[in-house]
Automatic annotation (TrEMBL), chains A, B:
<keyword id="KW-0805">Transcription regulation</keyword>
<dbReference type="InterPro" id="IPR002577">
    <property type="entry name" value="HTH_HxlR"/>
</dbReference>
<dbReference type="Pfam" id="PF01638">
    <property type="entry name" value="HxlR"/>
</dbReference>
<feature type="domain" description="HTH hxlR-type">
    <location>
        <begin position="15"/>
        <end position="113"/>
    </location>
</feature>
<dbReference type="InterPro" id="IPR036390">
    <property type="entry name" value="WH_DNA-bd_sf"/>
</dbReference>
<protein>
    <submittedName>
        <fullName>Helix-turn-helix domain-containing protein</fullName>
    </submittedName>
</protein>
<dbReference type="InterPro" id="IPR036388">
    <property type="entry name" value="WH-like_DNA-bd_sf"/>
</dbReference>
<keyword id="KW-0238">DNA-binding</keyword>
<keyword id="KW-0804">Transcription</keyword>
DNA sequence: CGGCATCCAGTTCGATACTG
DNA sequence: CAGTATCGAACTGGATGCCG
């Protein structure tokens, strides 16, 4: 019954790898992780550092990372309130794998660009020449 | 003028890293790449192997990978037609970085799961206890 | 300062049906 | 066998406004 399937969608925890990959690519996660890898940041500090991000997305991103245990959130009972975010050991351990992909991307970025230019708009077309 | 910005959205090629990450996480790419890393596959062979994927998405995924130069597509003029997909050297070179992330995900998957369980539904709540 | 709730546009993905 | 085309549902991400 494809018309009334209440499938929650997000049921498929396919494999942990895909799960992790999807999380990283929610557009800001990687950037936030990279920044926090350098030093702890305050909420608005991150907001200014990334600059293109909305408060909504920054909060969401941090929440996910916190929930997954990659980022720690510490509240200082000052006035006005201050909140600091930093990488947990688990978060730090993830910088390595990220780095591997990052290095590959940087190293082969031009190859991909070149391939795209060749493929252009008709990747499968003009194939049976 | 935030009310009439015609921003095409998809203009920001942020950094090659984010770009690559987003590509990988389109839900099927990683899986396809992993399968092709083992051996060449025919179109329907991939379709059967993944099983949850629709033809539409399989085709799109393969197109992107082909356009980016990670996968090669070869048509055999048989009847009925046969098409074989295989990793290019660039695609093969990417198995390493993917492996790094994959290994991390497998190794720390339970930690993430545990963190999520702890955080539960109130990650930020009950923090000032 | 830090954060959440609501609304809304753009994109992604699946189901389905049709072609060579 | 190997796709392509179209539609609609779901998800993502941004803008805005209110609260502690």
């Amino acid at each position: 019954m494809p018309l009334s399937t209440p499938v929650p969608a997000a049921e498929y925890e396919a494999c942990p790898v895909t799960d992790v990959l999807r999380r990283l690519s929610d557009k800001w996660t990687l950037l936030v992780l990279t920044l926090l890898g350098q030093r702890p940041y305050h909420y608005n500090e991150l907001h200014r550092a990334i600059e293109g991000i909305s408060r909504r997305m920054l909060t969401r991103t941090l929440r996910v990372l916190e929930t997954d245990g990659l980022v720690a959130r510490e509240v200082f009972p000052t006035v006005p309130p201050t909140v600091e975010y930093r990488l947990t050991p688990l978060g730090v351990s993830f910088l390595g794998p990220i780095g591997a992909v990052a290095q590959w991307a940087v190293a082969h970025g031009d190859e991909i660009t070149a391939a795209r230019r060749r493929g252009g708009l008709t990747p499968a077309a003009s194939r049976g020449d």
